Please model this.
Amino acid sequence: MLDYLIYLLTFVIGSILGLLYSYKLHGEPYVADSSLDIKTCIMSIVGWILGFNSGNMILGGIGFLLAGFVMGERPGYGRKETAIGLTIAIIIYLVLHLIK
Model:
């Protein structure tokens, strides 16, 4: 039960940090940049892989912090990166668990 609380708290903290970072980086009132941000894409991939596939509470918390950071950006930002990260993490999860 404690590990789920830690995952939830780190995800919320990551979302808040992502929102603050996104407002600092993008001052325009609407989505003006629709390009793929490589840094946040890597953060999303690493975060979702750690969150889904690590059996460790600390690594899982770090993963959900990174994933929350990308998902918590302003509306319209981070959506492509989150989709890519989730897709890769789910594929890796399925491959690791179907091999057993």
